[in-house]
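Q: What would this complex look like in 3D?
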Amino acid sequence: MGQTVFEPWNDPEAKPLIQFKGVTKRFGDFTAIDNLTFDIYEREFFALLGPSGCGKTTMMRMLAGFEKPTEGKILLGGQDIAPIPPNKRAVNMMFQSYALFPHLSVWDNIAFGLRRDRMSKDAIAARVEEMLKLTRLTQFARRKPHQISGGQRQRVALARSLAKAPKLLLLDEPMGALDAKLRTATQFELMDIQEKTGTTFVIVTHDQEEAMTVASRVAVMDNGRIIQADTPARIYESPNSVYVADFIGEVTIISGTARRSGAGYEIAYAEGVPPLHAESETHFDTGEPCHLALRPEKVAISAEKPSERRNTVKGRIIDIAYLGNLSTYHVEIEGGRMVKAQTANTRRLSRRDFTWEDTVWLSWSDTAAVMLKD
Amino acid sequence: MRRFALIALPYGWLLALFLVPFLIVLKISLSDTALAIPPYTPTLDLSEGWAGIKAFLSALDFENFTFLTTDDLYWKAYLSSLQIALVSTVLTLMVGYPIAYGMANAPDHWRPTLMMLVILPFWTSFLIRVYSWMGILSTEGYLNQFLLWLGVISTPLTILNTPTAVYIGIVYTYLPFMILPIYSALDRMDDSLLEAAEDLGCSRLSAFWLITVPLSKNGIIAGCFLVFIPTIGEFVIPSLLGGSQTLMIGKVLWEEFFNNRDWPVASAVAVVLLLILIVPIVLFQINQQKQREAEE
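A: Here is my prediction, written as structure tokens for the whole assembly.
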């Protein structure tokens, strides 16, 4: 079988590190977290993803101890953490603003938490050096936070929050203040550090690419609820709702009614056009409204009608988004609906096959689209 | 050239309003007292030309400064002023810091009102406010009446005309100068720093000592100097509230000028006072400079 896959959430024997049990958090009459129940396992890199105001930061602050749940329980290693104040929790947090102490050097910032534990001087020095090495900051140890770059500050914040070897590390938009290039590099660095230290990471982000890159599981949140928590691949390939499909990546949603046909379903989406075909593990009744979520890269675009696929529609190119490596075509199909199709730009731009106003054929396989309930 | 014109304005201001008066005072301090108007000699007479200037300069001496060292009243007054200024500064800090802290942590919509309340006393005459303290602190004053009514004391306390009254007056008067720089330092502080400190194992109290206090250090220093420097030369408060017991150099200075009409000695006292003040003023400027650099 080779290497065992890290999937504790599929193992009924595995004991979760964190358990949310019916957790609700209200601020006045605003419900930030709505009756949430789910588990996070040890050594996981868990991402909370959602638009601003979806409750992801509130969840993190409850884990850190800055907020208390209005209802329900949060267990850490089987123990209810509600009565434990933030300074006694084996949980550390890396703040979005980094919150480095401006009057202390990098070294003293990292040592700050260790000193509070009344560790011996030598033990503190050894641990700080270890952290400096891990985050490649050794040469900046004596500098003050305002004397180093943004990327270095981010690493100091990480080193400081990791220094106490917490059971759980919370990262609040850790890459929010970095530019795009540095962000990508830092994401891999973060994964590397997570693997080396074996700490459980919970990251809050609104950047879906970041969540997909770093996390072992991603929880897509909306209005205080987790809509879907799964591996990045499953979130992308088999979203459980239109919201998740729409939130992650680009997608075309085609709404219609389902009708059983052979191994799959026929979806009637417009008058006077042949129905689309799709397979689905979920059951749909005949006549039940459904939504087809279609990823643009799974849609082929061609000048002639392809013969090998059942799902073919004719359309006209309205818009082309050129992304360098990829091009996304916005095609208006018969019936007025827009469908996105994406192709890799394997040839030079001057030799592109299609241009604006061209009539083209779009096609996709029966398994390409995901059928979603209303 | 335009650059020169631009800086000429503040320098001209400084020259006219600080340097020239100071040179006049310095000149008087080197003169001798006389029964004349003005009550000192020599006076410069330009009609006699160069010889007149020479005669004028040769008549100046340091006699008055030597005199200051012969009478122990003066150095005692200087010392007592320093001591009162020091104690008052500490007291003002102890009262002002909690107020500034409370303001910085108050809900946003409260802050303009609180700020207003701190500044409001400046809108009435300083003299009237000190007089009203006489009404509060005197033996038959409101404070004693109130305490007697409460039954805390059976005989009225003597507060007016004691050093205590001077301290109360100074703390009251200079409190805004302490509050405002500390408030501005605390207000700039990022609240997530305290959460980070707590997250790393600090109690609320130790987070205050390890984070809040060091980060408001510059505000504390600025506030202390802003109270300390004017308090050394304070005259109105000790003379109105302190009675004859309180010895402060500002009062001595006033008496030399107006009771003894000894302008030269009074000027010498003023010059020495300024020399003493230069030290804290320079320290204050260094602190401000450092703060500006830290903010860049």
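A: To summarize the key features: The domain at 250-373 of chain A is CATH 2.40.50.100 (OB fold (Dihydrolipoamide Acetyltransferase, E2P)). Helices of chain A lie at 56-64, 106-116, 121-134, 150-162, 180-197, 208-214, 232-237, 242-247.
Q: Very helpful, thank you.
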